[in-house]
Design goal:
The chain is built from 19 helices and two strands. By secondary structure, it is mainly α. It has one domain. The protein has a two-stranded antiparallel sheet. A hairpin with a 2-residue loop joins strand 1 and strand 2. Helix 3 crosses helix 5, helix 5 crosses helix 6 and helix 11 crosses helix 12.
């Protein structure tokens, strides 16, 4: 009995193990000869990188999705994206509900851990809600894209349906995989393709808790939680700021926005701003953008989207908490108040921990990329942030990196998708309770 108890995994460990297992299975499937175009199968690194990018809904690639993978391989990638976007434990709980129509306490706890739920009394309702929201938004995006592919680009019904389904799922899950060798650059000024994809990305980036509350209490904003208000306001501010910044910097760049008409420039600037929220599609060549644009996009990618959704980064809520802590300290106030509510001090420590681990991971990753590949700081930092924040945007160097550098990106994608706190909890296994306190003392700050 004691041996069985010792073998039980912490919920955070189960989440980490679930994602790692999905990546391993996906890589094995992609290594099969009929997953790759031409003779032989994909190499271990190609399959592992692609599977990690798909499960972690990132979008970085070392091979061309359209020409390298067969339809079977593309279906495997799409399933991995859907699995990674929903969450491994949520998907497992869904299977259990369908087959057994019940969930064990352990399963509810694991699912609540992955979904960042406060409690786990109604995890069954949570799972059903997440799945229903995902499929509804993906279906709506699909229905908007298919007619455009049919009548605007002359695709037959089967091809339009496949392209519509693939890009709808990839968009809502913030994955950034596309069935075009130039990603979505061929649709740079087409609002009927760019806007539905951007809308799906934004909704996926809000996070399931926000979407579920808006679905129930959209007309009662006074009832919205602090999390919902922070995510909505943060999303609006970052999207507008990102659009203005990227559009202004790239306005006269003939290699990106400069060749478009004014409306096309604004659309392309907005679309790229949306992508930095961890989506990874690109309608212009990122490698030809100005260094100033890369720096601004680094910041936007690092912040990311809302928690408990398909987005990555440190999350809008983490950034907002640190911002309000700073403002409180500058004003000399004793407690942090946000939207009429006092912020728990435990959240202060969590936000600081997430940011410091994220900064350490990005800096270490960028340094390793520079050492292993010889790339300059701008490109190495961009790739490192993109991988950790599970964005998928690239300056075009990913496929040409040496194997060791590509494995660094694999590690960053995995850490970014699992989350520093979840991975740390999985390693630590349990909270350490200290039954005593030391005397207080204040060091000099600043």
């Amino acid at each position: 009995m004691r041996a069985r108890r010792q073998l039980r995994l912490h919920p955070a460990q189960v989440v980490v193990f679930g994602f790692a297992s999905a990546i391993a299975v996906g890589a094995a499937l992609l290594m099969l000869p009929f997953s790759k175009v031409g003779p032989g199968g994909a190499s271990l690194v190609e399959a592992l990188f692609t599977a990690t990018s798909a499960v972690c809904v990132t979008g970085l690639t070392v091979v061309d999705t359209l020409t390298y993978w067969t339809p079977f391989g593309q279906v495997v990638i799409l399933l991995l994206i859907q699995l990674g976007g929903l969450g491994i434990m949520i998907f497992a709980a869904l299977v259990g509900l369908v087959l057994a129509r019940k969930m064990s306490v352990r399963s509810r706890l694991n699912t609540a851990t992955e979904a960042k739920a406060v409690g786990f009394d109604d995890v069954r309702g949570l799972v059903r809600g997440i799945v229903a929201i995902s499929f509804a938004i993906e279906a709506a995006t699909f229905l908007l894209l298919v007619p455009r592919f049919l009548f605007g680009y002359g695709y037959d019904l089967g091809q339009a349906s496949w392209y519509g389904a693939f890009h709808a799922i990839s968009a809502f899950n913030n994955a950034g995989f596309a069935l075009y060798s130039d990603n979505l650059m061929g649709f740079v000024d087409d609002p009927f393709i760019c806007l539905p994809i951007a809308a799906a990305i934004i909704l996926g980036g809000l996070g399931f808790p926000v979407i579920m509350q808006l679905r129930k209490e959209f007309t009662r904003p006074l009832h919205w939680s602090m999390n919902t208000k922070i995510v909505l306001w943060g999303t609006i501010v970052l999207l507008v700021a990102g659009t203005v910044y990227i559009t202004a910097i790239e306005w006269n760049n003939a290699e990106t926005l400069g060749r478009l008409d004014p409306w096309g420039r604004v659309l392309a600037g907005f679309f790229q701003s949306v992508q930095t929220r961890t989506a990874g599609f690109n309608s212009v060549d990122v490698g030809l953008m100005r260094d100033e644009s890369w720096l601004g996009m680094d910041v936007l990618m690092f912040i990311g989207g809302g928690p408990a959704g398909t987005a990555g980064g440190i999350k809008v809520t983490t950034f907002a908490v640190l911002f309000f802590i700073m403002m409180t300290e500058l004003r000399g106030e004793g407690s942090v108040n946000i939207f009429g509510k006092r912020l728990s001090r435990a959240v202060h420590r969590q936000a600081i921990t997430v940011v410091l681990i994220a900064v350490a991971a990005v800096v270490a990753g960028a340094a390793l990329l520079m050492l292993l590949s010889g790339e300059n700081l701008d490109q190495a930092l961009f790739e490192a942030v993109s991988a950790f924040a599970t964005v998928g945007l690239s300056t075009g160097i990913t496929a040409d990196l040496p194997i060791a550098a590509q494995l660094v990106l694999v590690a960053l994608m995995f850490l970014g998708r699992i989350g520093p706190l979840t991975l740390g909890s999985a390693i630590a296994m349990r909270e350490r309770r200290i039954l005593y306190e030391f005397p207080k003392e204040r060091p000099a700050i600043g």
